[in-house]
Design a protein that fits this description.
Elements (H helix, E strand, L loop, with lengths): L76 E2 L2 E2 L31 H4 L140
Antiparallel strand pairs: 1-2
Length: 257
Amino acid sequence: MSPVDVWVGSWRPHRPRGPIAAMYNSPGPTYALPGATGMNNHDPRMLKGPAFSFGTRHREFQSNCSPGPGYLVPSNITRVGLDGTPAYSVYGRRRDIKPFQTPGPGSYSPENAAKTTFHSAPAFSLSARTKLFRNDQTPGPAAYMLPPVIGPKVVDKTAAPNISLSGRSAIGSFHEDLRKTPGPGTYHVVNSCVYKHKAPQYSITGRNLMPGDTTMKPGPGAHHPEMVAFTGIKAPSFSFGIRHSEYIAPIIVDAAD
């Protein structure tokens, strides 16, 4: 907008206070209706059906949950509580009361009270050496190092420029071992197909065998056409059954003497 243009109306370009629908291709945050299923955050405009839940599983009773025949009820217990008969018991013997230990005349030391009751001069004593004396690493006179007065590292004086001779380089010198120079096989040549047009490539595929069936097939001798009788007319045939049952035990007769 050129500076000569004049604003029309009260609207001016400004930064939006929050996201608006025009900033999204999809409904986005403008579509935030509550759900119509479930119990939490249900749409109040929709009808909510009854909801049921499963109760918890009760603890299984064990075989030894009752007191059993070992539960002996005392004789003084009735159906309404104790029968009211007074009961007495014998207490143990109490310990004897120890007499008070009164201090005697020898328990007091009045000579030690002179510093408290009378004026006394100050007294000092030398304390013992502490246990940390051996671990106290106090620096000695040789521990301090003053800066040098000559050279470039002088603190309070101006130093002149100093030049040092560098060591002999191993590259390009007369004692350089030229046998350690990499050969032609050390470098990797980039394939020309990477930065040029790639020519078509062809390859010969492997020989494919025709699919066949390798299952076992019956030969001419495996068939018996003479035993087939359901294709023609067959005369009735009968057979004799057995005289006795197969499950009857035979009679055992003692042999003649």
